[in-house]
UniProtKB/TrEMBL annotation:
PANTHER family named among the record's database cross-references: NADPH OXIDASE (PTHR11972), NADPH OXIDASE 5 (PTHR11972:SF58)
GO molecular function terms noted in the UniProt entry: superoxide-generating NAD(P)H oxidase activity
Protein name, entry field: NADPH oxidase 5
Gene Ontology CC annotation, any one: NADPH oxidase complex
Example GO biological process: superoxide anion generation
Start and end residues of each Ferric reductase NAD binding domain: 6-68
Presence of the UniProt keyword Transport in the record: no
């Protein structure tokens, strides 16, 4: 199997163009997401009311809750 890196330095297999780390067709992005960019893209889709469901560390929950308030999204924290 031939492997290559794209312009962003992400690893893909030549045959299927799948990410080597996850095996998914979408690429892996290292680092923290740009939440403003993510939330703006969701707003621009104009698909109606948006609710964010989250289960994970409290620090990220605070960040997402703040962004949801800023963009008018509902936020639901799940605990398992």
């Amino acid at each position: 199997m031939n492997n290559r890196k794209n312009a962003n330095g992400n690893n893909y297999t030549n045959k299927e163009k799948r990410d080597l780390i996850t095996g998914l067709k979408t690429r892996t992005n290292a680092g923290r997401p740009n939440w403003d960019k993510v939330f703006k893209q969701l707003c621009n889709q104009q698909k109606g009311k948006i609710t964010v469901f989250y289960c994970g560390p409290p620090t990220l929950a605070r960040t997402l809750r703040y962004k949801c308030d800023e963009y008018g999204f509902d936020f639901r924290k799940e605990i398992f």
